[in-house]
Design a protein that fits this description.
By secondary structure, the chain is an alpha+beta fold. The protein has one domain (5-121). It is 43% helix and 20% strand. It is built from six helices and four strands, in the order E-H-H-H-E-H-E-E-H-H. The protein has helices spanning 17-29, 37-42, 50-58, 68-75, 102-107, 111-121, and strands at 5-11, 62-67, 87-92, 95-100. Strands 2-1-3-4 form a four-stranded mixed sheet.
Length: 122
């Protein structure tokens, strides 16, 4: 694991079982209007994408995951700019920078492309 470095993934969805159920239903009934491409890429309807899970477990960099409500509580006081969600941030010690923003995430078609982009930017 890289010391003092981490990837921070922020989903455009709120935490909690009820919210997860509503998100799953939304993905099924109206996938084109679902607002979290990061959720779509890394999770299926009920479970984590297998390729993503393997990548996450085998990676040598820490990965931290937040829902938008958790992220806002944790980082609002530390960082002035709250990014448009979903987003992948890179934390290096106390510096936080954008790795992949919402617009770029929305253009990614599958988890293999997401994994490639992350690996190429580390």
């Amino acid at each position: 694991m890289q010391k003092n470095k981490a990837l921070i993934f922020v989903y455009n969805a709120n935490a909690g079982v009820n919210n997860s159920l509503l998100d799953s239903v939304h993905k099924i009934l109206s996938p084109k209007t679902y607002e979290c491409k990061l959720c779509e890429l890394t999770f299926g309807i009920v479970s984590e994408n297998r390729k993503w899970k393997t990548f996450r477990k085998e990676s040598d960099i820490e990965m931290i995951f937040f829902h938008k409500d958790e992220y806002k509580k944790k980082f609002k006081s530390k960082f002035e700019k709250l990014y448009d969600l979903p987003v992948i941030l890179y934390q290096d010690n106390y510096d936080l920078s954008l790795m992949i923003g919402k617009d770029e995430l929305n253009q990614i078609e599958d988890v293999d492309i997401l994994i490639h982009k992350i690996k190429s930017r580390l």
